Amino acid sequence: MFPLWLRLYLSRDKSRTLRPKSLRVWKPIPAQHRSFCSHFLHYFLSHCPQNEVFSEEEGAEDVMATGELNPNHYPAQRAAKVVQHYLTTRYGSPYRLFGLQRVHSGNAEDVGDSGRKYQLEIAVHEIISNTTQKCSAEVFFPHGQKQESPQVQASCEELLNISTKAQEEALYQQYKMNQTLISAQNLPDSHGHIEPDTKPLWHLGIVASSFIMLKESNENTLYNMAQVANITQLATENDQLKFDCHTLLHDMVSQEILHWKLLFTWSPAEGVKVLQMEQLPHCHHCEKPPNTN
Amino acid sequence: MLNSVGLSFMLLLSAVGAAIVERVGYDYSKYHPMPEITSWMTQMEKDYPGVVSIVDYGKSYEGRTISLLKIGLNTGEKKKAIWMDCGIHAREWIAPAFCQYFVSQILQSYKTDTIMEQMMKDMDFYVTPVLNVDGYIYSWKDNTTRLWRKNRSPGPPGCDCYGTDLNRNFEANWGTIGVSFDCCSQTYCGTKPKSEPETQSVMNFLASRKDDFLCFLTIHSYSQLLLIPFGHPDFTATNYDELMTVGLGASDAIRKVHGMEYAVGTSPAILYPNSGSSRDWARMQGIPLSYTFELRDNGTFGFELPEDQIKPTCEEAYSGALHIITYAHDKTFNGAVVTAAATLWTVLLAVGVTGANLI
Questions:
Q1: Which alpha helices (DSSP H) does chain A contain, by range?
Q2: What is the least distance, in Å, from the CA of A77 to any CA of chain B?
Q3: Least CB-CB distance to A99: which of B31, B298, B338?
Q4: Which of A70-74, B4-8, B270-274 has the lowest mean pLDDT?
Q5: What PROSITE patterns does the record point to (chain A) (predicted)?
Q6: What does the pLDDT read at residue B7?
Q7: Does position A13 have pLDDT exceeding 90, yes or no?
Q8: Main-chain phi, psi angles of B180, to 5 degrees
Q9: CATH code at B270?
Q10: SS3 for B186?
Q11: B355 lies in a domain?
Q12: Based on the structure, what is the number of domains in chain A?
């Protein structure tokens, strides 16, 4: 095994100095163009696709990457996160939740002036059954004056293969028969803990919040759940369980915590349907320490 | 008979005494509030005299001491060093948990692992378990403060909000990209570079010692990433290839522990552009291996990582950090020997060939 210092010495780039440069676009080196040295690096670096060495191409005029995307870079990752939110709104339930496992490949192209379209191959993780499956998806981000929700199409192998019908029905009946309407706060709590009997409420909060995260997403955001601050069951209407929810969303890009209020319904047959959503202004003066005299 | 009763009683008393005297182990799988971390640091210094010492190197806005643990086997000479800081962002609780775990691990392993023992002889480890002390304490206050990020200095005159983002306040392309000048924003970079006492503490401590430091690791959460300089898309580190290769090696080491994927790259490539980060400043000071670790998870729990994930997260991050530290050490302490040997052989071969030609 060649020592690391020797490998690095052979592959060193003597031309680079700390200087301003044009924005680089990174593309994978086709095998036939790889130099001896980068073959070296390829051999000794990890076998996993995302650890492939990418070369640089100077002179890319576009600020936004077009064509083939590096699956680890933020444009593909942000678009893929939108697919996660979409799948959660369509198929999520107290017993089915999705996470983004990996982006295998991505492609982006401008659609005239109207927006930008991403094509992605991703691996989606169903969190509760701990299974992973591949999806092909298309995400279109409209470029309007104000925020418009992205449009998503996705086809996954066997997304609904694991049946959650029985559990959903049992939960639905249990909540429907509740003498006292159920409610919970701080899911998860400061230490990441969730009481087992409030887990379904946390999951419902996530599904409902995904409608907001989907609607609010664009190429400059990356939304994740921060916390379900409060979720309260309201009286059942038309055989739909009804909930009021105060949710905290985290946007990775701005690092802001966004507060939203939601009114939504759920049943195994209809899934989650959001009736109302409203962003809450954040109380800045609440963050000041109290006056001490 | 009385004698045997007395003897048994004495034995019982000493057993009880021993049980009381035996220290209750520190739980590295729990999140600890600041007072517990402070007493843990004091305990470490007591338990490892001559190896661990507390260094107070600054003050927070609210007047609290910022301290680090200096860990190394004292050879009496000026030594090369490794820097690690955790908790620059208050809500990233897994980071201080990792710093504490890291300290306990190196102290445990150097007694039996000759490689670690050598590293401790050759280098000193400077570990700051909680850099943003005020922010961390504030995030423990109640349910409404848990997601606080910045420090606790008041905003500029006329501002309704508190806090500067310490990781945008360093003197490294300050205020150019990935920041906000709105004092209420989570990425508010301050009134000027180094405006915050916490930033000043780090910059002042390292400025006079920068030639000693081989490695600067700053620990954050979440996203499962290893970020290399620079945060500004128009600037590339002169040792970019080295940073990537070593980073990818660390990512491999992480994956081997629990199968978790940590992507490697510059911040503008894999996350977002930013300026004024501690990692960038450290690199600009000439510290060659400067990394931001973003620990678990990928957004399921985010900042509120469950305590049952603390140990696995720490184990994998330790593996990754150790890869970088070992590389830094070997390059400095073994690399010279190997290069010298290679040069010698090359010279000998050249002489041998020339000699043969002459004959």
A1: 4-11, 36-44, 74-91, 165-176, 199-216
A2: 8
A3: B298
A4: B4-8
A5: CYSTATIN_LXN
A6: 67
A7: no
A8: -130, 145
A9: 3.40.630.10
A10: coil
A11: no
A12: 1
